[in-house]
Write a structure and sequence with these properties.
Layout lengths: L2 H8 L8 H7 L2 H42 L5 H9 L6 H17 L8 H21 L2 H33 L4 H63 L1
Helix pairs in contact: 2-8, 3-7, 3-8, 4-5, 5-6, 5-8, 6-8, 7-8
Function: Part of the Tol-Pal system, which plays a role in outer membrane invagination during cell division and is important for maintaining outer membrane integrity.
Membrane topology: Multi-pass membrane protein
Subunit structure: The Tol-Pal system is composed of five core proteins: the inner membrane proteins TolA, TolQ and TolR, the periplasmic protein TolB and the outer membrane protein Pal. They form a network linking the inner and outer membranes and the peptidoglycan layer.
C-alpha cells in the first residue's frame, strides 16, 4: 500500500484541531520533535514507576533490618542469615563490616591496629555503591525536565516559521487560515511541558528520598562502627 495514501487517509481535513490532525499537518521537523518528546515522556514514566517501587522496597528493607539488628540477636547469627542472600541498604553495610572483621580474625593477625579504619572504609565504599544504585537514571529525569521545554519551544518556533511562510505564499491572513498552523506549532510546546513537568516533580521527590535514606544508612554505619570499635578495644585490652 502506498504510504502517501495511508497518510492522506489518516490526516484530518485542514482546519481540524484534533491531536492526531495537528501531528499529521505539522512540518516534518516539528513531527520529529513531537515524536522525540513523546518517547522522552514514556521513558520518564518508566523510570518514575521503577524508582517508586525501588524506594518503597528499599525503605521496607531498612525497617526490617533495623528491627532484626536491634532485637538483641548475636552479630554472628545475623551475619550468617544476611550473608546467605543478596543484601542491600543497611544489610549491605553490616555484611561488608562483618566480612572485614572476620577476615582480620581468621587471618591470625596479632594486632587489631587499623581494623577500625578498614571497617570504616569498607562501609564507606558500600554506602557509596548503595547511593549510586538509588540515584541511577535520576539524571535522565533531570535532563528531560530541563531540556524538554526548550526542545518543544524549538518545534514551536519552527512550526510558526513554516506557518508564516504558508501565509505569505497564500497571501491570506484570515484567522481560519492562520490558526491551524499556529496550533500545530504550539502543540510541540505542550508536549515539551507534558514531558518536563512530571520529570521535574519526581526528580525533586526522588532526590529528597535519596537524601533521607542516605542519612539513615550513614547513621547506622556510625552506630555499628562504634559497636565494633568497643569490641576491638575490649579484645585489645584482654
Amino acid at each position: 500500500m502506498n504510504p502517501d495514501v495511508v497518510q492522506t487517509a489518516l490526516a484530518a481535513p485542514p482546519g481540524s484541531f484534533s491531536l492526531l490532525a495537528l501531528f499529521w499537518q505539522a512540518h516534518i521537523v516539528v513531527k520529529i520533535v513531537m515524536i522525540g518528546l513523546v518517547i522522552a515522556s514514556v521513558w520518564c514514566w518508566a523510570i518514575i514507576i521503577d524508582k517508586t517501587l525501588l524506594f518503597a522496597r528499599f525503605a521496607r528493607q531498612l525497617d526490617s533490618f533495623e528491627n532484626v539488628f536491634w532485637s538483641g540477636q548475636s552479630l554472628e547469627q545475623l551475619y550468617q542469615q544476611v550473608s546467605a542472600r543478596e543484601a542491600h541498604g543497611m544489610a549491605a553495610l553490616f555484611v561488608a563490616a562483618m566480612r572485614e572483621w572476620k577476615r582480620t580474625y581468621e587471618s591470625g593477625v596479632k594486632t587489631l591496629q587499623g581494623l577500625g579504619a578498614r571497617i570504616d572504609r569498607v562501609m564507606d565504599v558500600t554506602l557509596a555503591r548503595e547511593v549510586d544504585r538509588l540515584e541511577r537514571r535520576l539524571l535522565v529525569l533531570a535532563t528531560v525536565g530541563s531540556a524538554a521545554p526548550f526542545i518543544g519551544l524549538f518545534g514551536t518556533v519552527w512550526g510558526i516559521m513554516s506557518a508564516f511562510q504558508a501565509i505569505a505564499a497564500s497571501k491570506n491572513t484570515n484567522l481560519a487560515v492562520v490558526a491551524p498552523g499556529i496550533a500545530e506549532a504550539l502543540f510541540a510546546t505542550a508536549l515539551g511541558l507534558l514531558a518536563a513537568i512530571p520529570a521535574v516533580m519526581f526528580y525533586n521527590k526522588f532526590a529528597s528520598q535519596v537524601t533521607r535514606l542516605t542519612i539513615r544508612m550513614e547513621g547506622f554505619s556510625d552506630e555499628f562502627a562504634a559497636i565494633l570499635s568497643r569490641q576491638i578495644d575490649e579484645r585489645s585490652a584482654a
